[in-house]
């Protein structure tokens, strides 16, 4: 009996390992040591880092540069809190990460980008790679140098073959998705003239709207991020010339001026935005939104109505993208955040679809000019293909 159980357990383990093998591979870390001399460093002064899986076959001269997410720090206190974590120091980063979804090297799971050079840039500056403050306070030893980090990493990749790129795409998730919007034209300017360049933002279209208490909490927060990191000079002049710099951290105020083709993948009920923009803890002192934020099926009818209003605000903010045919959009009605890095939402038999099209196909068709894609989902709960996230309350003690 024991042997049968052991056999079943080993069979199950092999199945799990095979699943991991087919849906993701481990890729080692590269530290950009020569960036330190340029002052292009993480919050703690350590060198920036990325993970690089080389392209092959027909993809040898194609490059996908994908930026990791991780929120922002808005003052010395919150930046110190992340300084000695993986979000502020390359010393604390895992030396291997799993590449899946848009980073997968398997044609079955990533048909358009599997054989490209695929890079995951680690996020360690706390301001979507926009900051640049020369002075370093000796007491805190905080370095606000994100803009230099972005340039140093691209320069390092240029030396490793990006200078020969035929196709290139800057993408990212969450704060990395915001990076891919804010730095889209910068990226275009850094790579060779003849390269076909496009940008993809996954869950990076953060909107400026009131929270449930009626306050513009996120606007104040972004103002502090931009001030702390000295980001103003690295935000688009087309926006900062007529708006406060903090407002230019919102894509709705600056995306229309981006000249490079841009694709937005975003849930209309983005779980991060619901938790931190619509119903942040400061606006919900009695925790009325706590269970709803962890699981959308636990929301009351009143809360769902408030979330429907948030969706309308999100769709209104999307008009800031402009009407160019070079813009792509996959706006589904899921309770999710970041859908390109995970195989289950990027491309699988049960992946989310809009008009019968997966995110992977929509992005691939748009990149290769096979067909444009600009689709917005019907309101929750109409979309049965969604992978609505359920969050562990222990992972989110502050929610």
From TrEMBL:
Cellular component terms (Gene Ontology): plant-type cell wall
Role of this protein: Hydrolyzes acetyl esters in homogalacturonan regions of pectin. In type I primary cell wall, galacturonic acid residues of pectin can be acetylated at the O-2 and O-3 positions. Decreasing the degree of acetylation of pectin gels in vitro alters their physical properties.
Protein name as annotated: Pectin acetylesterase
Keyword entries, A-Z: Cell wall, Cell wall biogenesis/degradation, Hydrolase, Secreted, Signal
Localization of this protein: Secreted, Cell wall
One of the record's GO molecular function terms: pectin acetylesterase activity
One protein family per Pfam: PAE
Cleaved signal peptide residues: 1-24
One GO BP: cell wall organization
Family from the record: Belongs to the pectinacetylesterase family.
UniProt entry tagged with the keyword Secreted: yes
InterPro entries, A to Z: PAE/NOTUM (IPR004963)
Species, as recorded: Rhododendron griersonianum
EC id: 3.1.1.-
């Amino acid at each position: 009996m024991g042997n049968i159980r052991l056999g079943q357990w080993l069979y199950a383990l092999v199945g799990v390992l095979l699943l991991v093998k087919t849906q993701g591979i481990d890729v080692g870390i590269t530290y950009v040591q020569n960036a330190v001399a340029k002052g292009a460093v993480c919050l703690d002064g350590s060198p920036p880092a990325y993970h690089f899986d080389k392209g092959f076959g027909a993809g040898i001269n194609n490059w996908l540069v994908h930026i990791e997410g991780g929120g922002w720090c808005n003052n010395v206190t919150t930046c110190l809190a992340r300084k000695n974590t993986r979000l502020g120091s390359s010393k604390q980063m895992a030396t291997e990460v799993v590449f899946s979804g848009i980073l997968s090297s398997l044609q079955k799971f990533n048909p358009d980008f599997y054989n490209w050079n695929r890079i995951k840039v680690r996020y360690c500056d706390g301001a979507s790679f926009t900051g640049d403050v020369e002075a370093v306070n000796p007491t805190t030893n905080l370095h606000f140098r994100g803009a230099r980090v972005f340039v140093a990493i691209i320069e390092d990749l240029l030396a490793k073959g990006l200078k020969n790129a035929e196709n290139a795409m800057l993408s990212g998730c969450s704060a990395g998705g915001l990076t891919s919007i804010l730095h889209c034209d910068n990226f275009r300017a850094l790579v060779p003239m003849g390269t076909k360049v496009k940008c993809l933002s996954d869950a990076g279209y953060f909107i400026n709207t009131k929270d449930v208490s009626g306050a513009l909490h996120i606007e104040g927060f972004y103002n502090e991020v931009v001030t702390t990191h000295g980001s103003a000079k690295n935000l688009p002049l087309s926006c900062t010339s007529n708006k406060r710099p903090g407002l230019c951290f919102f894509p709705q105020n600056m995306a229309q001026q981006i000249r490079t083709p841009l694709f937005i993948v975003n849930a209309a009920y983005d779980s991060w935005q619901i938790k931190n923009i619509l119903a942040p803890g400061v606006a919900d002192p009695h925790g009325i939104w706590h269970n709803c934020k962890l699981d959308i099926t636990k929301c009351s009818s009143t809360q769902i109505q408030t979330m429907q209003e948030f969706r309308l605000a999100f769709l209104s903010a999307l008009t800031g993208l402009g009407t160019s045919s070079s813009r792509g959009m996959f706006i589904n009605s899921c309770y999710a955040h970041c859908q390109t890095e995970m195989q289950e939402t990027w491309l699988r038999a049960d992946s989310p679809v809009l008009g019968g099209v997966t995110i992977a196909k929509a992005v691939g068709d748009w990149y290769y000019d096979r067909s444009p894609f600009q689709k917005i989902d019907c309101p929750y709960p109409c979309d049965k293909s969604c992978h609505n996230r359920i969050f562990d309350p222990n992972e989110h003690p502050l929610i």
